[in-house]
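Mods, move this if it's the wrong board.
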Amino acid sequence: MFREAWLTFIDFIRTFGALQLFFLRLLAATPSIFFHRFGLVVTQVYNAGALSLVIIMVCGFFVGAVLGLQGYSILSKFNAEDSIGTFAAFSLIKELGPVITALLFSGRAGTALASEIGLMKATDQLSAMEMMAINPLHRILVPRFIGGVISMPLLAAIFSIVGLFGAHLVGVGLLGVDAGAFWQQMVATLEPSDVYEGIIKSIVFGVVASLLAVWEGYNAVPTAEGVGRATTRTVVISAIAVLILDFMITAIFI
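Not the wrong board. Structure tokens:
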């Protein structure tokens, strides 16, 4: 029992160390990609970001609408219905926007990256590139990693903006909250540090989700079952990592 737990712990440390070395290799190759393969980065920003807009905007709108309803239900007990805008802004910008966007991103774009790279490995496309003196790290992995890192903060911002629109539509349009008070209290209360917290979270989550997706795809067992397991691990590990890092970043800012 103890021996199995110890071996599992050692295997975890080795995998974590290999992941860090892999991350450093991606970072080392990043500057040259912007100068020599920038078109690939733009393509991956489109694949990871633009193709995720629909699910991000739909979920953002209804999350904001729910915040409007819940905020009105809670704040009306204290005669503070006009603070719905502040309630929704703090919830979306600091917490729900980055976290939910990261979870949706890993579920949609992350699985697409992992399965695509895993399928390339299973069909020997990566090996063929190496035989033609093309480094898969520069041609396949780094552009997808950078594309995910760039897309994540943009998607989180769109999620928060659409969520605020949903909260405004419910609070002002349906529940009769004063529109001027909705926005005025939000602008007066929200501080730059609150926005910075949301930006930092979205960037960190983008790095983690993109890194795990690329890592799992690249190290997938080259079989149909192996690619499926890599895709599943991408979603599960990304979700756990995002929630743990969310707690850590929030604790630092507080």
